[in-house]
């Protein structure tokens, strides 16, 4: 999400600071045939997330992103959707700078999550995946 300094209709997304409120990578199993967060969206067409109750009131952009890593040799493929929303009745908090990133710039080609070879002989034995981007902001700090 990114807080707009006023109306989101007058904001430029590249100028905003973004923070992550949720993420889902490899949920269970291994890299090859495990259950992935993107699989939830593919199977159901839905991904449910709760906006932290502590978040300050205001206008925000929310960004939903699926990252395809099946062709690591060409780099990840990003499938991004954004929407505007207005938070009311929030808790008055904003994320600390350590949670904020800019787009472009939030990711590096060297991020471990972008350099996974799903076709390697080791892939069926790997049961962890490091998601790119900042830590999730839960509203607790």
TrEMBL record:
Database matches in Pfam families = AA9
Q: Which Gene3D superfamilies match?
A: 2.70.50.70
Q: What class does this enzyme belong to in the EC scheme?
A: oxidoreductase
Grouped into one coarse class, the protein's main location is: secreted
Which residue range or ranges hold the Auxiliary Activity family 9 catalytic domain?
1-123
What is one GO cellular-component annotation here? extracellular region
Q: Which reaction does it catalyse?
A: [(1->4)-beta-D-glucosyl]n+m + reduced acceptor + O2 = 4-dehydro-beta-D-glucosyl-[(1->4)-beta-D-glucosyl]n-1 + [(1->4)-beta-D-glucosyl]m + acceptor + H2O
- Which CDD domains does the UniProt entry name for this protein? LPMO_AA9
Please state the Enzyme Commission number of this protein: 1.14.99.56
Q: Does the keyword Secreted apply?
A: yes
Q: Where in the cell is it found?
A: Secreted
**Domain comment in the entry:** Has a modular structure: an endo-beta-1,4-glucanase catalytic module at the N-terminus, a linker rich in serines and threonines, and a C-terminal carbohydrate-binding module (CBM).
Q: What does this protein do?
A: Lytic polysaccharide monooxygenase (LMPO) that depolymerizes crystalline and amorphous polysaccharides via the oxidation of scissile alpha- or beta-(1-4)-glycosidic bonds, yielding C1 and/or C4 oxidation products. Catalysis by LPMOs requires the reduction of the active-site copper from Cu(II) to Cu(I) by a reducing agent and H(2)O(2) or O(2) as a cosubstrate.
What's the protein name? Answer: AA9 family lytic polysaccharide monooxygenase
Look up and give the organism this protein is from: Candolleomyces eurysporus
């Amino acid at each position: 999400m990114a807080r707009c300094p006023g109306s989101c209709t007058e904001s430029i997304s590249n100028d905003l600071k973004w923070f992550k409120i949720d993420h889902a990578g490899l949920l269970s199993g291994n890299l090859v045939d495990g259950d992935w967060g993107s699989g939830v969206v593919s199977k159901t067409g839905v991904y449910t997330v709760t906006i932290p109750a502590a978040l300050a009131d205001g206008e925000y952009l929310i960004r939903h992103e699926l990252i395809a890593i099946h062709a690591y040799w060409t780099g990840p493929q990003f499938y991004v959707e954004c929407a505007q929303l207005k938070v009311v009745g929030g808790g008055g908090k904003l994320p600390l700078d350590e949670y904020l990133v800019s787009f472009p710039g939030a990711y590096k080609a060297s991020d471990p999550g972008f350099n996974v070879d799903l076709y390697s002989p080791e892939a069926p034995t790997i049961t962890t995946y490091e998601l790119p981007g900042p830590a999730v902001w839960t509203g607790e700090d």
